[in-house]
Amino acid sequence: MNNDLQFTKCPICSSEGNIKILYKNLIGNKSILECPKCSIQYLYPYPTESELNEIYSEDYVAWGIGNEDTFSQMKKAKFRKLLKYTAKYCNKGNLLDFGCGPGYLMEEAKKIGFNVYGAEFGEYAANIAKNKFGEDRIFAGNIENCKFQDNFFDIVIMSDLLEHIVNPVSSFKKVNAILKNTVNSNGGGIV
């Protein structure tokens, strides 16, 4: 079976042509595609904001909370590994977890000395994170509308997120604006 399909352009590099279908109709009518030029994988058709609200409902988050012993420990172990990797480039300062969910990565980053903030589209998960870290530390909603100060963050982490963003290019522009300008390689990175 031919897995190539020519019908869309890449949301990151704007390449047009044969886009590889990795998983067809994985979530309803949505498939996971891969750009042959930049290798980014993304959901298509792109999710609408109302679809994202439905996906990241209370039920989605409550499943992980209800399986706290296994789910959160698995996520925290993954995030400790990620933070160990990022420490080579940035090991202190203001950290934004873009797509923070209930705050598992933030918990681990705070333990090692980061000043943590989060942005979360799902209202239910954002409220859990707000209860852990405070209203002023969590932005609930689309990243393009966040009120974080420009040049404020030393590092922004976007883990398991890109395929869920409605407009990745716009999101990257916002992330670029809120990252500190740096003249060396010790900060200002996107993971």
UniProtKB/TrEMBL annotation:
Any one Gene Ontology molecular-function term assigned to this protein's record: S-adenosylmethionine-dependent methyltransferase activity
Q: Which Gene3D superfamilies match?
A: Vaccinia Virus protein VP39
Q: Which UniProt keywords apply?
A: Methyltransferase, Transferase
Q: Which residues form the Methyltransferase type domain?
A: 96-181
One Pfam family matching this protein? Methyltransf_11
Residues annotated as signal peptide? none
Domain of life, per UniProt, equals Bacteria
A Gene Ontology annotation in the biological process aspect, one of them, is: methylation
The keyword DNA damage is annotated on this UniProt entry: no
**What's the protein name?**
Class I SAM-dependent methyltransferase
